[in-house]
Inverse folding.
């Protein structure tokens, strides 16, 4: 199975999150205010995105428990969408750069600051009123979050001992093949009669 890139996954997820948020706002639940429904939809989107990032990075899913638990407390106490979105963006940075793709902190911190602030600013400035506006705003935010992976190199740092070990194993396999060929009297030097 071919592994999907985090950029492609982010772009696909952006569309799914936009549809989920539009559905959450348009539900005819009069006993729950629409900001609470939108916050719950945002939390579910963030939790699903965090699980996707954990899968892509081969990180254990239990590592997401602390930030998601903290965000669930913020979700329960947030009185507005803005009161939840800012801590949720910080939680996304914690999950993405701290748990799923840890690495050199300066470059990752710069990428987090750039993508999160650009995502929040553009979403706020370009958001249209109504349900469609919230859905398009969330779509735009996650599209910009996909750019994080264009700024940060996700290739794991290679351990020099591991590469030496793999080269040694390759040489040993090659020697075993040479011995097997010589025992079978098959030589790469020998040419067939033509």
């Amino acid at each position: 199975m071919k592994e999907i890139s985090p950029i492609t996954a982010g772009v696909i997820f952006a569309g799914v999150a936009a549809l989920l948020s539009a559905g959450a706002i348009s539900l005819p639940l009069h006993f729950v205010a629409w900001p609470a429904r939108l916050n719950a939809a945002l939390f579910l989107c963030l939790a699903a995105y965090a699980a996707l990032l954990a899968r892509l990075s081969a990180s254990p899913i239990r590592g997401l428990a602390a930030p998601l638990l903290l965000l669930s407390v913020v979700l329960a106490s947030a009185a507005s969408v803005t009161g939840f979105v800012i801590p949720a963006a910080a939680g996304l940075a914690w999950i993405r750069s701290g748990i799923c793709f840890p690495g050199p902190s300066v470059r990752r911190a710069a990428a987090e600051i750039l993508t999160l602030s650009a995502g929040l600013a553009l979403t706020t400035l370009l958001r249209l009123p109504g349900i469609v506006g919230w859905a398009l705003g969330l779509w735009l935010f996650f599209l910009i979050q996909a750019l994080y992976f264009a700024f940060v190199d996700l290739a794991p740092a290679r351990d020099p001992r591991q590469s030496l070990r793999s080269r040694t194993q390759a040489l040993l396999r090659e020697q075993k093949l040479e011995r097997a060929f010589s025992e079978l009297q098959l030589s790469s030097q020998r040419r067939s009669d033509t």
